[in-house]
Specification:
Structural class: mainly alpha
Number of strands: 0
Mean pLDDT: 76
Helix content: over 70%
Number of domains: 2
Distance between the termini: 49 Å
Order of helices and strands: HHHHHHHHH
Length: 271
Amino acid sequence: MKKTFAMSLVAAGMLLTTTPFSFAQEAAADAPVAADPSAEAGEIVNTPGETQAAAAAAGVGNQFMQVLFGSGFVGFVLWLCLFGCLGWMIYLAVDCGILVRPAKIMPKELIASVEMAMKEGDIVKAIQFCDNSPTPMANILKAGFSHVEEGFDIIEQAIGTAAGIEIEKLMQHISWLSVISNISTMFGLLGTVQGMIMAFAGLATGTPDMAELALAISQALWTTAGGLAVAIPGTVVFYFYRNKANRIVLHMEALTSELIKDLRNVEVVEE
């Protein structure tokens, strides 16, 4: 897990670092190209569009690096936090994609095995199948089967309690995506405030350095954009997996009710 998170963090840093260059190249690619009248036929020359594209890419890239390393210790820490939030969001999105699936929550093999055991009337075998499949549905069914001697009402209560615990575990895992979205937005806002403080501090001197003033404003805008770039996809992924988990949970509850209905008329024989 640690290795996966570290790889996600590195990938996030590379993504945010190279994004300004990509945007600049795409924007400059649409610039009109004018022919050089002094060029002879068959001669390869650098067109103005290519020159502008290179200059724009270098300019945006240099500006981002100046903001990254020229905004002071606090600004650099803020960017590290944004990179960390992006890496964490990517890791959790992949992890939820693996976890929030019917095959992980209520595997078909478990359902078929429990159905077979219930048809045979063998509760012990059903419990063994649940022990061999450590999944949320197995934990819920096992909680019900463990109280089979106490009556159907107690079985339903045990299953309801176990289902609530398993659902809460699943939702807590997914909710971290919402936490990351909120935190990244706050980091971006904090960077905006820091940039504006730097800008007004420069204006307070009476003769502000225009380069430093532009750098401070760039810090404010870049951190805002960075925070939103993490928060927007994080929010979308959070609601996607939350809704998907709710659908799976509803299906799981329906299946559980179907599997335990045969326990309503079970009579326990004491040896």
